[in-house]
Amino acid sequence: MGLVLAAEFGRRRPVGQRGGSGGGKSPDVRHERALVRALPLLLIVVGVVYDISTPPAFTAAPLFTAAPLIAAPFYSLITTALIGAGSCAAVLALHFKSSTTADVEAITELITVATVAVLAVVINRVVRRSDEQLASARTIAEAAQRAVLPQPDHRIGGLDVAARYEAAEADAFIGGDLYAVQDTPYGVRVIVGDVRGKGIGAVAAVAVVIGAFREAAEQEATLEAVAQRLERALAREGTRRDGLDAFEGFTTAVLAEIPHGDGLVRLVNRGHPGPLLLRGDGRLCVLSATEPALPLGMGDLGAWPDRADETEFPPGAMLLLYTDGLSEARDVRGEFYNPAARLGGRIFPGPNGPDALLATLTEEVRRHTGGGTTDDMALLAVRRPLMAGDTGGDTGGDTGGAGADGWTDAGSDVTGRD
């Protein structure tokens, strides 16, 4: 039994991973879980010591009955049964040592421990079956999510592109974060969004939003018209599913359009965290919406025309779009991770810059939260490559310092909108 317990105690449950990241537990959580898993064996040992070192009137039966009950949700069926058998064997051995095996008290104690051990085995089967059903549902949702969120190419429309979907910790549900990049006759068009809700319903909503975006991005001449198409698509689906609330309610999103060769980026923001624009010299700008607008799917509460904001997007600059899983990641003190403050003054050069940026953000968020993130996180970075003759400084016509255009010098503290 000792070998089985040692193997069971040392075995770590695999943690689901997506986008190169796992939802690992923090060190404190791992230590607490290890302590709980060690309790059944410790209780048996303590029970034996207690029974031997105390007068016959005292009994360690509560410790022996607790051991298999604690093992039931943490160990396999065989190990739980072995711990129950070990408890019964310890009770029998102790009474045999004191020559009281025929006493009524000894028989009652043995029957009690054996009954609890059988109940522990039943509890173990129920818990394992529930775990298997939950794992199956999560696997299906993850497969559906990967189908609607394929990894974009590293080069789209002459731009360097990188995307990541970082799952929350292993016990969390699938979220509704989304992204898509498409080269169109009007330029490279991008969407990053977050559907309200979790699970299969959120994945279904993501599929509708992505499908509507890919169709509208090819057909509509303006980014504002693309946003309106998405609004209508969500309204139709909400009606078909008997109400918008049944269809996860609403979707926050930011849409971007990067015309071919113009050195500009246009944005339409529907209630989403503002993107960040990082220049090649380290200056950073938070691209907040000029006129705040309601999320997609809330057209019944009010309607007004979308207006795209236009910003310079020079060679060497990089556009970062993300969901609130990044800006609302908290540390143990409850402080949010501030991507604007963390990235100001930092440079991620070259064609691999987008990948390096997203890898840096992922690692920093993991350290900030201690590995225990509670929300999924979608990240998308788009970089305009340097052309022949470009210096990479991206100074354009701007001067240093935080001017009216919102730019901040490299290394300055930037307060982003979390």
Automatic annotation (TrEMBL):
Organism of this sequence: Streptomyces rectiviolaceus
PROSITE patterns according to UniProt: PPM_2
PPM-type phosphatase domain sequence ranges: 178-384
InterPro entries per UniProt: Bact_Sigma-Reg, PPM-type-like_dom_sf, PPM-type_phosphatase-like_dom
Key word Transmembrane helix present: yes
Parts of the chain that traverse the membrane: 34-52, 72-94, 106-127
Compositionally biased residues, Gly residues: 390-404
First and last residue of the signal peptide: none
Pfam name, any one: SpoIIE
Region (Disordered): 389-418
This protein's name: PP2C family protein-serine/threonine phosphatase
Keywords assigned: Hydrolase, Membrane, Transmembrane, Transmembrane helix
